[in-house]
Amino acid sequence: MSTDPQTTTATDVSSDAETILQVDSLTKRFGGLTAVDDLSFDVSKQEILGFIGPNGAGKSTTFNCIFGTYKPTSGTVRFNAADVTAKPAHEMVQKGMARTFQTFRPLPDRDVLSNVELANVSNKLFTLSGLFGSTEAEAAEICERVGLGDDLHKMPDELPHAGMIRLEIARAIATDPELLLVDEPFAGLSGQEVAGLSELFENLRQEGMTLIVVDHNMRGLLNLIDRAVVINFGERIADGSPEEIKNDPTVQEAYLGGSEI
């Protein structure tokens, strides 16, 4: 593990065929505020990477720069070795990337099945394939995968909080992504619900998906991930295994003023 943000950059691993995402010297400024500061990291295929940092560290801004919601001030983002820096979000979906949001965004007047089906149809419109396929059956299968098989005809506001999170994930994976960015999935969940969601993420990985997960539930996240990248004030301060991250004094200082995580 290294606590030096410059020790390993995405450029260093560009020849690695198993790398799916490379973020190299990413910077995002809003006027005089630097939200992401010369940030570099890479993600391997089928890895579950934790992206960790205190409130205001720049995690969501980094997601927005990767996914095309924001245009970076400088730096590059490569997805499957292609430069996708500043490509709009709909193009990122076409290329095989999806994300969930902290604020749920279902269509409130459509049931669970229809919400997922419409996400599936939208992706097929993007790809110009399968327009006349069995989208309802596909959507039902996705709902079953995420644990909503018994809730197909419920309206979103009838779902518990954990169900809403699963619906957000279902809508994202309906676009058939290779890489899924997951924003705060464990917020407000019980220990049992966190365990159930972690099992879902592991199943998605086993099916071939790569995941980057942001969350403030350190215990739940560290039990799930293979590796973590930790940022503070937009800069990378650590990169390593869950055990290394837990024992890193720089991370402990950033989170808890030096107390052990």
Q: Can you describe this structure in just a few lines?
A:
By secondary structure, the chain is an alpha/beta fold. The protein is 36% helix and 24% strand.
Number of helical elements: 9
The rounded Rg comes to 18 Å
Average the pLDDT over all residues and give the rounded result: 88
Helix vs. strand class: alpha/beta
Kindly state the number of beta strands. Answer: 10
| Shape descriptor | globular
* Distance between the ends: 17 Å
The portion of residues assigned to helices is 25-40%
Order of helices and strands: EEEHEEHEHHHEHEHEEHH
Main pleated-sheet profile:
6 strands, mixed
Strand order of the largest sheet: 6-7-8-3-9-10
Low-confidence stretches: 1-17, 126-133
Beta-strand residue fraction: 15-25%
Strand and helix map with partners:
Elements: E1 19-30, E2 33-44, E3 48-52, H1 59-67, E4 74-79, E5 82-83, H2 89-95, E6 97-99, H3 112-127, H4 135-146, H5 161-173, E7 179-183, H6 191-206, E8 210-214, H7 218-224, E9 227-232, E10 235-240, H8 242-246, H9 249-256
Parallel strand pairs: 3-8, 3-9, 6-7, 7-8
Antiparallel strand pairs: 1-2, 1-4, 4-5, 9-10
Helix pairs in contact: 3-4, 3-5, 4-5
Describe this structure in words.
The chain has 261 residues and is α/β, with parallel strands linked by helices. The protein has nine helices and ten strands. The chain has helices spanning 59-67, 89-95, 112-127, 135-146, 161-173, 191-206, 218-224, 242-246, 249-256, and strands spanning 19-30, 33-44, 48-52, 74-79, 82-83, 97-99, 179-183, 210-214, 227-232, 235-240. Strands 6-7-8-3-9-10 form a six-stranded mixed β-sheet, with helices on both faces. It has a four-stranded antiparallel β-sheet with strand order 2-1-4-5, with helices on one face. Helix 3 (112-127) packs across helix 4 and helix 4 (135-146) crosses helix 5 (161-173). The protein starts with 18 loop residues before the first strand and ends in a 5-residue tail after the last helix.
